[in-house]
Structure formats: structure tokens, C-alpha cells
């Protein structure tokens, strides 16, 4: 079994980005946070730490949970016009009183380093060479390339259809000439669908749901989930201990996809796409 080491690969990416920044390039990222979601606080802390390492200026703008959607959009519009700001992130999820899609649509596409705006999504779907690709799918693609995972012609099953991971991941795998199936909460016979996969990508947010009954022997497994088990320990959507004996390669949790997401976000900030 090959352990797909996202932590080490992410470090290589950050080291390259640090060299670029040290060559005289200045970049500034602004993270917009609404409310005080504990998971969001952790994600933001990791992003700020990574920015400090690479040399990217990072500012967190924190707003109270009861902020009006129109007021929040106004703040983002002002960031759009600030020439010192290269990238804008709206940390998700937003409170239920705010519609995420409307807020994200305010971000200028060239500052949308998360790749979540309609324009950047459209560019991805149409194979447009300029535009930001969401960081998690981009990080997974890099891991597959780094470890020379053969994708062409292989059957890839993606469990989860979010706009952040599932849908853009499917497109990237199609670009790499995989045969792609997207499964979700309404998929019938999920075990049988997953067991067809040469490459299985799981992004469902359910601790250790995927065990060996879902996995074909020799499959490559990418675990996107970050959860807490009954003992409060970090774990993925895949039961690592149960499946490690039958897979050919797998990402650990922690240390797999998570670090790659942060690294590829910084890649978008430093390198730019437009």
C-alpha cells in the first residue's frame, strides 16, 4: 500500500511558492469570516499560518453573525476595488440568514482564489485556460500526478456532489481521461457502485462510513473527509484501518487532502490565473 502523503507534497508546493514570493512578488489575501463557527476558526488559522510561511500578507475580516447580506456584499465590493488585495475568500459556511451564492457572486473573478464564482466555475467546465480551480480538487489532481497514479481509462467514482469538491473533481478527472461516476445520498446500491471504482474519491462528511465492503481490491482511495470519531480523534470518511489491507494507495486523515487544499489555495493566490 502506498500512503499518498499530502503533508509532504503540500510542503513542496509551499516551498516553491515561498521562493516565488522571495523573488520580489507581493500578494495579499483577505479572508472574510461571518460568525464564530469552530471549524471555520480552525481552517482560517491553518490558512493564516500557511500564508505567514510563504510570505503572503493575510488579513482576516471578521463580522458578526447577524450582519445583513447587503452589508456583507458591500464590504466585499470594496475589497474588489482595493488594488492592494489580490485574493478574496469568503469562509463557508455562512449563517442561514445569508445566501452563499449571492455573496460569492459579488467577488470579482480575478480575486476569487477559491474558484467558487459562477464565472470561474464556467471557465472550468469549458476548459478555459484562465480562471481559478477550487483548491481541494486541484490538490487531489496534484497528488495523483505526484504519485504517478494512472488515471487514463480508469473507472473513477466520486461520492459527493458539492460545488466545492464533487462537481469540479469530476471535471478534472474527465480532463485526465477517466470514466467518471458521481454518487450521492440518493444513489441506489452505493456499495456496488463504489466497488466498481479503480479510483474512489469520498467527500460526504460521515466519519468512517466507507469500509472494505465498498472498495475493490487494489483501488486507489482519496479521503476528503475531516471528522471527529467517537473519541474526538480526527478521522476521514473512510475507515482507514479496515481498508488499508486491500487498497493500493490511500490518503491519510489527517495529512492527506487537507494540507493540499491549503497549499493549492496559496498557489492560486501567488501564481494567479488571470
Write a compact overview of the structure shown:
This protein is of the alpha/beta class and 274 residues long. The protein folds into 2 domains: 25-109, Leucine Dehydrogenase, chain A, domain 1 (Rossmann fold, 3-Layer(aba) Sandwich); 135-258, NAD(P)-binding Rossmann-like Domain (Rossmann fold), CATH 3.40.50.720.
Largest sheet: 6 strands, parallel
Domains (count): 2
Q: Which strand order spans the largest sheet, edge to edge or round the barrel?
A: 1-11-8-7-5-6
Please tell me the overall pLDDT: 96
CATH architecture of the largest domain: 3-Layer(aba) Sandwich
Radius of gyration: 19 Å
How much of the sequence is in beta strands? 15-25%
Order of helices and strands: EHEHEHEHHHEHEHEEEEHEH
